[in-house]
Structures are given as C-alpha cells and as structure tokens.
Design goal:
This is ATP synthase F(0) complex subunit e, mitochondrial. The chain is about 85% helix and about 0% strand. The longest helix has about 70 residues.
Length: about 80
C-alpha cells in the first residue's frame, strides 16, 4: 500500500476567494431563479386565460358536431 503525501496548506486568500465566489454564485442563482419564476408565472397566467377561451370554443364545436351527427342519423332513418 502506498503512503499519501501530507496535504498542502491552501492560502487564506485563495480560501477567501473560493468562498466569496461560492456565495456570489448562490446569490446570483437565487436572483436568477426568482426572475425566471416571475416570468414563468406570468406565462402560466396568460395560458390559463387562453385555456378558458379555447375550452369554450371546443365545447361549441363539440355541440355543433353532435347536432350535425344527430341530423345525419335522422336523415338516414327516414
């Protein structure tokens, strides 16, 4: 089994910058996530409004199709 060398001491300046960059990255990530979350919420709201309109149109089309089918069946029964 090989022996491991003693660990190298990392400069306090390097440690400071490592932790600073890590903290900056976390803060930036939180800010970015918040901004994208607001944008996505606005998109979901707009899609919900469009869904209501789309559902109404589909209901009308289904009713018309059902009425048309009933008329065709009545015509065939005569």
């Amino acid at each position: 089994m090989s022996t491991l060398a003693a660990p190298v001491r990392v400069s306090p300046v390097i440690k400071f910058f490592r932790w600073s960059l890590l903290g900056t990255g976390v803060v930036y990530g939180a800010f970015h996530q918040s901004r994208l979350g607001k944008k996505e919420a606005a998109l979901r709201e707009a899609e919900a409004k469009q869904k209501i309109i789309r559902d109404e149109k589909l209901a009308i089309e289904k009713k018309l199709a059902a009425d048309r089918e009933i008329q065709e069946l009545e015509a065939l029964a005569k």
